[in-house]
Records
---
Amino acid sequence: SRARDAGWNVAVFSADDGKLIAEPKSEGAVACMTFSGETVYMAPQHGRGKFVAADARTGRIDPDQAPGPAHAKCTPLLATPRWLLYRHRAGGGFTWIDRKTKRTRQYDRIRCCCHYPGLPAYGLLLVQGAGCNCAHPMRAHVALIPGKRAITKYADASRRLVKGEAFGKPPATGDGRVWASWRADRTRGGKTPEAPKLPLRQGWAEKLAGELTPLAVAGDAVFVGSSDRKVRALDAATGRHRWQYIAPGAIRVAPFYWRGRLYFGDD
């Protein structure tokens, strides 16, 4: 695809002599494309617009082959002789479309990575684990097999429920004076009851290496992680370095302060 004055479009060139064959038009920007047989499928990004299908040899748009509105996320499309597969914009699963009947099916339990929607091979769908910071309960390389979901017979609730020490206790409340993590607290409220002293002025500035995470602030210390694998504690009043910890991998998510301890994860 390439940019033109009228917007984004697609150009088809001959593999034999490099000459321009056609420029099929689409409703919007074409973010990704795939092909199978003699059909090329194109789709916009983030679920905007419709799928476009074109003849791979002539570039002619074939409306009979287009499956309809596109709900694809940023992950590329994948076409097989029978199916068109993509990660849908809900973010947490797959959609696959029967190329002949246009019937759509969805599977919402596994999230693939942003670079590939899964690889169908040997009767399996091989899914690469998500490598980004998006929240999803299962983060692993997974092989999916066809079949119906087994009906699970659950044990009696009285046998399954185990009451731990926290059972029946109200949720712990945080200290409003502590900016515990990204956007302040576990609810991501982004607020504090502490009133600033006006007018505001810059107290200090400190240049640190790497790409920094959002801050956590507790007591008289500021905590920050970095892509250079370090967690640093700075004096809140002066910016002076107090200590640092070198982790095994890059730190890309804000640390979390809770009751005198600092929690963080690394790559």
---
Amino acid sequence: MNYRSDIRNIAIIAHVDHGKTTLVDAMLKQSKVFRNNQIVGELIMDQNALEREKGITIMAKNTAVVYRAVKINIIDTPGHADFSGEVERVLSMADGCLLLVDSIEGPMPQTKFVLRLAMKMGLKPIVVINKMDRRNSRMAE
């Protein structure tokens, strides 16, 4: 297989409501994917009506940002146990992963399962801790 040094595929591993879609939204806005005068809502990646209604990602989706001439394909994966087959499929295509952990709830069992799977596949996670500004954050733990 040919390996391209100018493309990276990154999966985001996190439990439902731990902020995957919000993180991707912020990455897209920060990387100036949108024009300054363009009005962009929240949950950019969740276009499916059921996903918007439930506030969860059901089907994996991808988008991309460019950083220092490297195209980074970001894969927003489902965070619910019912969609583990979809998560495994995504991980098999990834070069690396972001492990997104909610500082209030901590790592959940499904997240730990997906992390073990990712590490077994040779992925090296970058840990991102979300919701640290919340009053009931458990950062000391």
